[in-house]
Amino acid sequence: MHITLKKNWPYLITVFGIIALFVFLPVQSVSAIELPDATSDFYYYDEPNILTPDTKELIMKINNTYEQTVEKPQIVVTVIDLLDGETIENYSAALFEKWKIGNTDYDNGVLILLALKEREIRFEVGYGLEGILTDGKTGKILDNNITYLSNNLFDSGLQQIFRATAIEVATEYQYDIEATLASSNSKVIETLNTTPRDKGFIPSTIRFFKSLKPFNVLIIIVGIVFAFFTPDSGGGSSGSGNRSGSGRSRKSNRRSGGGGRSGGGGSSRKF
């Protein structure tokens, strides 16, 4: 037995190194993020001041309508100057948790995060909405409006992305928000005269792999290796049912998150 361990110690070190990568690296990375506090309006945060009053009004109107429902979903639009070296995936997940977006009982929060300097945008979705706002659905919403962002029409792009997201959430809970959308003064006043991007399978696949960072590639490779070499990896795992958040209550003089948790999914795009 002693001989076997001595001969295999390089492999053991490699295994423990991979485990340490998964256990410690995310914790160190997320803890290093300097996250902003939510504003008193809560539903939008605009660090570079690129959102127009019309777009802010639309965001507030829809979320105020949601506040009157039983489920009380929340869609928060956040624009920051830069990620300061952090990945947008880690940043959005940490911000989602800090602001506790969504209703505790339904875990139905959505964060739309745009990082201006890095030119990246991401959806972070709570578990309760992952059935309607799947990775594929949120990716499609971003792809449909990415041309706005590519042409620096950030307000128009975010407004359209928010509208599409609000409609999906309303469809899930059978809300009628058509009147709210129609009565809103918010309009996309900037138009595009560019050729739409090719949305075929091959161009979409190429764009996906181009958007991957080295760390994401490493995670994919390690995951494939584990899946290939792990015996009896049938993938049968049991769900935990409903997730509960911190249960933080709303304050009458300031909006706040309901206690939702991130992790339901999301999509990221570069523009």
SSE map:
Elements: H1 2-31, E1 44-46, H2 53-67, E2 74-80, H3 88-99, E3 109-115, E4 120-126, H4 135-150, H5 154-173, H6 178-183, H7 201-211, H8 214-229, E5 262-265, E6 268-270
Parallel strand pairs: 1-2, 2-3
Antiparallel strand pairs: 3-4, 4-5, 4-6
Can you walk me through this structure?
With 271 residues, the protein is of the alpha/beta class. The protein is built from eight helices and six strands; from the N terminus they run αβαβαββαααααββ. It has helices at residues 2-31, 53-67, 88-99, 135-150, 154-173, 178-183, 201-211, 214-229, and strands at 44-46, 74-80, 109-115, 120-126, 262-265, 268-270. Strands 1, 2, 3, 4, 5 and 6 form a six-stranded mixed beta sheet that branches. A hairpin with a 4-residue loop joins β3 (109-115) and β4 (120-126). α2 runs parallel beside α5 (154-173) and α4 (135-150) packs antiparallel against α5. The termini are far apart. Residues 26-30, 188-199 and 233-254 have low confidence and may be disordered.
Q: Tags for this entry?
A:
single chain, 271 residues, alpha/beta, six-stranded mixed beta sheet, globular
| Largest sheet properties | 6 strands, mixed
SSE string, helix = H, strand = E? Answer: HEHEHEEHHHHHEE
Beta-strand percentage? 5-15%
How would you name the oligomeric state of the polypeptide chains in this document? single chain
Distance between the termini: 56 Å
Helical percent range? 40-55%
- The average pLDDT is 78
Structural class: alpha/beta
| DSSP, total strands | 6
What low-confidence regions span 5 or more consecutive residues with pLDDT below 50? 26-30, 188-199, 233-254
Principal-axis shape: globular
> Helix tally?
8
Tell me the radius of gyration: 21 Å
